[in-house]
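quick one
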Amino acid sequence: MLKNKRALVTGSTSGIGLAIARALAAEGAEVILNGLGDQDEIAALCEELGATYNGANLMEPAAIAQMMADIGTIDILVNNAGMQHVAPVEDFPPEKWDAIIALNLSAAFHTTRLAVPGMKAKGWGRIIATASAHSLTASPFKSAYVAAKHAMAGFTKTIALELATHGITANCISPGYVWTPLVENQIPDTMAARGMTREQVMNDVLLAKQPTKQFVLPEDVAALALFLCGDAARGITGANYSIDGGWTAE
Ligand code: NAD
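structure w/ nicotinamide-adenine-dinucleotide:
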C-alpha cells in the first residue's frame, strides 16, 4: 500500500512511534526512525524494518532543520515524539515546561514547515500527530502536556485548511492511556503528587479514565495511523480521532 512512500516517524525508537514505524514498514514504506535510545538496539530496529535512523534531538530547532535537510523529501510525517511531567502548577519546573512545549509542540511545527514544500511539489502528503485524549480534555498536574496537546489539535486543524487543495491531509490521533514507557515513568510522580500507591495510580487515576478498563494497544494506534495514510482516507483532514477506550465520551 505504501510502496515508494518515504515516512519520517519522530520518537519511533519506543512505544507508539515504533508501532507506527513497524506498521508503515510492513506496508512497504521506506521508514526513517528518530528518537533517543541505545545505539545497538536502534541498529537492530533499522535492520528489522529496513529503516534508516536520524537521531536529532527534537528539542533543538537547528537539529530538526539539519535532520530535515539530511533526510530529504518525505511523503508521510508522523509527529509523535513526546514526553510528560506530572506536578502541581506551582511546583512545575519551568525547564520542564519549556522542554514539553519544545518537544510535544514546537518540534511538530518545525518538521511540518520543512516537510510541506516537498509534499506540495508532489501533490501528495500525510501529516499525522500523535496527540492525546489530553488534546480534548484535561487532567490535574499535567499543565504543560495538556497545553501542548490542545495546541497540537489547533495546529493540525490550521495546516489541514492550508493544505486542503494540495492532496495533503493533516490529522490528529488521540489515544487514551497506552502502556508504554511514557506512562510507566509517570507513575512515581503521580504517586507523589496525589499521595497514592502504585496500584491506586494504576486503577484510580489511569484506568479510571477509560470505561473499557483496558490500556489501548500501540498496535491499534498504529493501525489507525496506517489507515490515515491510505487512499481511502484522502477525504479525512483536520480530524482528531479518539482511540481512548471511551474516555472522552464521558
Ligand atoms: P515513549 O516514551 O515510549 O516514546 C517517546 C519517544 O520520543 C521515544 O522514541 C523517545 O526516544 C522519543 N524522544 C524523547 N525525547 C526526544 C527528543 N528530545 N528528541 C527526539 N526524540 C525524543 O512514549 P509513547 O507513549 O510511545 O509516546 C509517544 C507519543 O504518544 C507522545 O507524543 C505521547 O504524548 C503520545 N501519547 C501517549 C499516550 C500513552 O498513554 N502512552 C497517550 C496519548 C498520547
